[in-house]
Each structure stands twice: as structure tokens, then as C-alpha cells.
């Protein structure tokens, strides 16, 4: 029986991970395989994790999660050979990915026969200005979408939400637009009710020349950071960042990790787990436009978080 694929797209920090996490946490008996291709993309509550091997995390609710290593088609083939086989596959794209390229790969006849693309979901941050939809990459993500999920609607006023809905309809009139408070999207919009249903193949646009628009720079430390200094450092770096995330241990709370996220100019901190042995105490990833930041600048600013 074919295994339907849900492709989740959206710009950096839009809230894709929150949507995928909600799907996994509310699988309601469905065996869902989540494929992620972004650093720290799935932050699953520790109590859900039953074990891990070969880049695959098995969850206690019957779902699994794996990182995208190497070729997408090879990763899907590996998942389809699992026993028991997943009933659905969710692919979370990188925030800088054009879903049209992934759709083109999924039209491969061998993959289509076993795992047809059912739905493309694009997650859009409701708090961003309407002018953000002028971005060519975000417009491409929207044009591929069957369903558009508005995230962070609780942080935006009604007028802003209405304006961005109108802008989305102008780009993609055929898409269904839903509010996704805390990542909740109705499963009926994403997965077929009839598992024997096979969707029709999609038309694909010609491949566009690849352009490197963003780059990822990481910073690690074997020592815990001082939280006030880290906050100052992030404040200095934030104007040049499109996205940042990671884990760190602080001097103020030794032996505990904190999860850090920066998206849409907003930074959030959440309690993490216990540091694993042999892993740096601090692991941060910074995503910026090409040339906006240098590794030397990051090293200089971040080193102040541990010195003294």
C-alpha cells in the first residue's frame, strides 16, 4: 500500500517544527515518519523518545523521526523498508529550500509508486509584515502549497492577520488558509481519509539555477556561558541574523541545558535536558545572508560569553 507524503515548507523561523511536533504528539495511533533536514529541527519531549539508531529516533507513540542524510530518495527508500512500515511520511524542508525542487524529486516514478506526494503545507508567520511576501523564495514556497498554516496568530492583531491572508490569496488563490495556533493543523487537511487513495502527479516547473543566498555559521564551547553576556551577544548579532538556534549550559544553572530560538526578531529560551557526555556545553547555529556575518565576528562576540 502506498505511503502518502506531507511536505512541510516555510521560511526561516515560520514555525514548521512546531507544526511537525504537534503532528507527532497527536498521531492518534497513526505511524508517522518525520524526515527533517535542519539542525535541531525536531525538539521532541525527552519522555517520548524510546531509542535511536542509524539517525532514526523511535518514539513511544509508534512514530519515528530521522535526519535527512544524503540523498532524499535514498532516505525515503530506507524508511519504506522499515517494519512496521510507516503509514504517513512528513518531510520538513529547510527554511531556505524551494519546495519546487523537492516536489520535482518526489515525482520520481519509483518513489511515486511507493510514496506519492499527497499535500504541500506552507507555514507562514502571521506577525511578519505583508511586504515579507515580496520575497521570491517565500512566494515560491506559497505557490507550491495546497494548505497554508498561519503561525503565531496569537501574537498578531486581527487586522494584521486579515492583511496577510489577503496577500497569501493573491499569491496562491487555490490554497486553503488555516490558523495554526501552537502548531495545530487539522489532520483531515493533510492526510487522506482513505489510505487506498492515490493523488494525481503534479506538474513541475523547470529547474532554476541554484543561488546561495544564506549561509550557516556555528559556534561551540566546552564551557558554560554566562546568561547576561549571552543575551548581550545575541542582541549585537540579531540585526544581521535571519535565524539562530541551539542549546547551551549556563554558569547560573550548571548541569541543565537551555533551548534557544531566534526567529522574526524574537528570541525565546526554554528548559532543555541534561548535557550529554562528550558533547560541547554550548552549540549554536547562526543563519544569515551571505557575507552579512563572518566567523571571526561571531567568534569575537561569542567568546565574551565564557571569558572572565
UniProtKB/TrEMBL annotation:
<comment type="function">
    <text>Zinc chaperone that directly transfers zinc cofactor to target proteins, thereby activating them. Zinc is transferred from the CXCC motif in the GTPase domain to the zinc binding site in target proteins in a process requiring GTP hydrolysis.</text>
</comment>
<dbReference type="InterPro" id="IPR011629">
    <property type="entry name" value="CobW-like_C"/>
</dbReference>
<dbReference type="Pfam" id="PF02492">
    <property type="entry name" value="cobW"/>
</dbReference>
<keyword id="KW-0143">Chaperone</keyword>
<comment type="similarity">
    <text>Belongs to the SIMIBI class G3E GTPase family. ZNG1 subfamily.</text>
</comment>
<dbReference type="InterPro" id="IPR003495">
    <property type="entry name" value="CobW/HypB/UreG_nucleotide-bd"/>
</dbReference>
<dbReference type="Pfam" id="PF07683">
    <property type="entry name" value="CobW_C"/>
</dbReference>
<feature type="domain" description="CobW C-terminal">
    <location>
        <begin position="214"/>
        <end position="306"/>
    </location>
</feature>
<keyword id="KW-0378">Hydrolase</keyword>
<dbReference type="InterPro" id="IPR036627">
    <property type="entry name" value="CobW-likC_sf"/>
</dbReference>
<protein>
    <submittedName>
        <fullName>G3E family GTPase</fullName>
    </submittedName>
</protein>
<dbReference type="InterPro" id="IPR051316">
    <property type="entry name" value="Zinc-reg_GTPase_activator"/>
</dbReference>
<dbReference type="InterPro" id="IPR027417">
    <property type="entry name" value="P-loop_NTPase"/>
</dbReference>
<keyword id="KW-0547">Nucleotide-binding</keyword>
<dbReference type="GO" id="GO:0016787">
    <property type="term" value="F:hydrolase activity"/>
</dbReference>
<dbReference type="GO" id="GO:0000166">
    <property type="term" value="F:nucleotide binding"/>
</dbReference>
<dbReference type="GO" id="GO:0005737">
    <property type="term" value="C:cytoplasm"/>
</dbReference>
Amino acid at each position: 500500500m502506498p505511503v502518502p507524503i506531507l511536505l512541510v515548507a516555510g521560511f526561516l523561523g515560520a514555525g514548521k517544527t512546531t507544526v511537525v511536533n504537534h503532528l507527532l504528539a497527536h498521531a492518534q495511533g497513526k505511524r508517522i515518519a518525520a524526515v527533517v533536514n535542519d539542525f535541531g529541527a525536531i525538539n521532541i519531549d525527552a519522555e517520548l523518545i524510546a531509542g535511536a539508531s542509524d539517525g532514526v529516533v523511535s518514539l513511544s507513540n509508534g512514530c519515528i523521526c530521522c535526519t535527512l542524510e544524503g540523498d532524499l530518495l535514498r532516505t525515503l527508500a530506507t524508511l519504506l523498508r522499515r517494519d512496521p512500515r510507516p503509514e504517513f511520511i512528513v518531510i520538513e524542508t529547510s527554511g531556505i529550500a524551494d519546495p519546487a525542487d523537492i516536489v520535482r524529486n518526489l515525482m520520481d516514478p519509483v518513489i511515486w509508486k511507493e510514496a506519492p506526494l499527497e499535500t504541500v503545507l506552507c507555514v507562514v508567520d502571521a506577525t511578519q509584515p505583508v511586504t515579507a511576501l515580496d520575497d521570491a523564495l517565500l512566494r515560491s514556497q506559497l505557490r507550491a502549497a495546497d494548505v497554508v498554516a498561519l503561525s503565531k496568530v496569537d501574537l498578531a492583531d486581527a487586522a494584521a492577520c486579515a492583511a496577510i491572508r489577503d496577500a497569501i490569496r493573491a499569491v496562491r488563490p487555490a490554497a486553503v488558509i488555516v490558523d495554526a495556533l501552537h502548531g495545530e493543523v487539522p489532520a483531515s487537511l493533510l492526510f487522506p481519509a482513505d489510505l487506498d487513495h492515490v493523488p494525481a502527479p503534479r506538474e513541475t516547473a523547470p529547474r532554476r539555477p541554484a543561488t546561495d543566498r544564506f549561509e550557516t555559521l556555528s559556534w561551540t564551547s566546552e564551557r558554560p556561558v554566562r546568561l547576561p553576556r549571552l543575551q548581550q551577544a545575541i542582541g549585537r548579532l540579531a540585526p544581521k541574523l535571519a535565524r539562530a538556534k541551539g542549546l547551551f549550559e549556563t554558569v547560573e544553572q550548571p548541569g541543565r541545558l537551555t533551548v534557544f530560538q531566534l526567529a522574526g526578531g524574537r528570541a525565546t529560551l526554554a528548559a532543555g535536558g541534561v548535557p550529554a557526555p562528550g558533547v560541547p556545553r554550548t552549540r549554536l547555529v547562526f543563519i544569515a545572508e551571505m557575507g552579512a556575518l563572518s566567523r571571526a565576528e561571531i567568534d569575537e562576540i561569542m567568546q565574551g560569553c565564557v571569558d572572565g
